[in-house]
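Sequence design from tokenized structure. All designs in this work follow the same two-part layout: the structure record, then the generated sequence. An example of the structure record is given first.
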């Protein structure tokens, strides 16, 4: 791992922030136009320059999520959440991936973690994610209760 960090640091010093920003913008444009594989390739390329950039992991996770590669998306969103620990977006998308795979307990756990973040520090978009997370967690609880009631009828 240390060797990887050294290699990453030396590669990062060879390129400008402007270059990295332009590559990111190109990847974002591919993502916005539905070319998720091309976007994914660019975001993974960017990661080779800086493995500690949570935005790159988030973008990789978003591409995998759109490609319905939920296991890969989970890994990327987990990394993004670790690197951007006060950011609700990676956790919300992580929960969505768990739900897509029918991993309800994991989704509930992640949503609960998200709801423990300090909402007062959020901007408007982040507060919206917080509210969506509350609604999603309540829907999971309602769904679980209905399943339990249906199971008890038999």
């Amino acid at each position: 791992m240390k060797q990887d960090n050294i290699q990453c640091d030396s590669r990062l010093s060879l390129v400008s922030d402007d270059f990295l920003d332009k590559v990111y913008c190109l990847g974002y444009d591919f993502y916005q136009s539905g070319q998720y594989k091309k976007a994914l390739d660019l975001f993974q390329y960017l990661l080779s320059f800086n493995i500690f950039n949570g935005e790159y992991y988030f973008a990789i996770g978003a591409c995998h999520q759109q490609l319905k590669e939920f296991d890969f998306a989970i890994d990327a969103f987990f990394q993004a959440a670790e690197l951007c620990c006060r950011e609700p977006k990676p956790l919300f998308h992580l929960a969505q991936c768990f739900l897509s795979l029918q991993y309800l307990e994991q989704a509930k756990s992640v949503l609960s973690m998200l709801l423990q973040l300090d909402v007062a520090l959020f901007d408007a978009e982040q507060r919206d994610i917080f509210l969506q997370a509350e609604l999603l967690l309540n829907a999971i609880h309602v769904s679980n209760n209905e399943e339990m009631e249906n199971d008890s009828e038999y």
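The two ends are 54 Å apart (CA to CA). We note this feature because it recurs in several other targets discussed in the main text.
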